[in-house]
Design brief:
Oligomer: single chain
Strand content: 35-45%
Radius of gyration: 23 Å
Number of helices: 8
Shape: globular
Structural class: alpha+beta
Helix content: 10-25%
Mean pLDDT: 96
Order of helices and strands: EEEHEHEEEHEHHEEEHEEEHEEEEEEHEE
């Protein structure tokens, strides 16, 4: 039995330096992978550009001689097509638009230099086989990533702002960027409390430990902090975390590399504080007798294996302002160098943070140090996930929790 995976990424990318567009790059990458299954073994071959499927099949057949074990049934009898599309004006021109964005920001904040890139993408992925599996995902989106540097600063960069999404509003983006720059120029001091509400982006590194310890391989081998708490209420009752392939949660296909399509394209791993399961591919689920969640990853020409789940936290019914409930919070904007220990202790320096009332950025805080423990952060000190997004046309919500906060100097 043979199976074909295809992936295409067509993009136009504008590189920006010193408030000007310096280059335009158009790129199309088309990749094809062909898998052959026989007697509980798998053979894979792949190529980019225009391909000869018969030649790929020969190479995959040759790979079968290596007797790579894969005793798992491929997907079958499932035909699903999901399309999403960017909403742009009919006369949209990426170069002209980029210049309008830069001019709109620099006109109001001439003390800053902008750089990095803006890109427009069209992507498509498909997976089909001779057993009736026929999955296709098509999407298009705009990615804006603009680094800012104050002209008087000795730093290479002082911060950034951007988004990736399917909706675009020039005025909204410029206004949002200007709010960041205005807050950056307004220095404020840290409230005199040892513990404060700390606000993160839901798609940031703060979820790294949960992601690693919800990995089915870590759970199966007993190296996860969560292994002994499966089926138990260990976290805050308002915490629900999905493994998500839902295109409404991000820019990703609705199926995994083994052709699994979950109901609503999501699987609950933690629900109302209870740890239900870790995320798995077919191999890990079978080896450790764990629930199968469809989280296989890999390149177009590789054997599918367990990847890292795209975790999605279920939003609450409250805005960030309502979650903070009259308190001021520390919005962590750039934090590099922090980490979790193996037992769940967390500590991190924060290079850039803003004081927020949940609705407005009140100013830039001095460099900070934050600390807590995984089970406190998502347990007794968990405040919640906002109903409002960090940027209306992006996918990330605010995540708030109480933590120890202090100035570094």
């Amino acid at each position: 039995m043979k199976e074909i995976y295809t992936q295409t990424d067509k993009s136009t990318t504008l590189s920006i330096s010193n408030n000007q567009v310096h280059s335009v790059r158009n790129k199309t990458i088309a990749s094809t992978g062909l898998r052959v299954y026989k007697k509980d073994c798998i053979g894979v071959a792949g190529a980019q550009g225009k391909v000869d499927l018969k030649e790929l099949e020969k190479k995959a057949d040759e790979m079968l001689k290596m007797k790579i074990s894969y005793p798992y049934a491929p997907g079958k009898e499932n035909k699903v097509k999901v399309e999403r599309k960017i909403n742009l004006p009919a006369d949209f021109d990426l170069t002209l638009e980029t210049n309008e964005i830069i001019d709109g920001i620099v006109k109001e904040q001439p003390d800053f230099i902008l750089s990095h890139q803006i890109s427009l993408h069209e992507v498509e992925s498909s997976l089909s086989n001779e057993q009736g599996l026929d999955l296709m995902y098509r999407d298009s989106f705009l990615g804006i990533g603009l680094v800012f540097k104050e002209k008087s600063s000795a730093n290479i960069m002082d911060g950034y702002y951007g988004y990736a999404g399917r909706d675009y509003d020039r005025k909204l983006f410029i206004d949002s960027y200007l709010k960041i720059l205005k807050a950056y120029k307004t220095k404020v001091d840290l409230p005199e409390k040892k513990t404060l509400p700390v606000v993160f982006s839901c798609d940031g590194a703060i979820l790294a430990k949960l992601n690693s310890d919800l990995n089915g391989l870590q759970i199966g081998t007993g190296s996860s902090l969560l292994t002994s708490y499966l089926g138990k209420d260990k976290f805050h009752k308002d915490l629900t975390i999905w493994q998500s392939n839902n295109p409404d949660d991000g820019l990703l296909p609705f199926f995994d590399m083994e052709g699994t399509v979950n109901p609503d394209y999501r699987v609950a791993l933690i629900e109302n504080g209870k740890i239900l399961k870790g995320y798995t591919d077919k191999k890990v689920a079978a080896k450790y007798n764990l629930p199968y969640t469809g989280c296989a990853s890999g390149s177009y020409d590789s054997i599918p294996k367990l990847g890292q789940a795209a975790l999605q936290l279920k939003p609450s019914q409250k805005t960030l302002k309502e979650l903070l409930n009259g308190e001021l919070g520390v919005y962590v904007y750039i934090s590099s160098g922090g980490d979790f220990t193996s037992n769940g202790e967390y500590g991190a320096p924060v290079q850039l943070a803003f004081l927020t009332d949940g609705e407005n950025l009140l100013g830039r805080l001095p460099e900070l140090s934050i600390g807590s423990h995984l089970f406190d952060m998502f347990g007794k000190d968990y405040i919640g996930v906002s109903s409002d997004k960090i940027y209306p046309h992006d996918f990330a919500y605010y995540l708030a929790m109480d933590m120890k906060v202090s100035k570094i100097y």
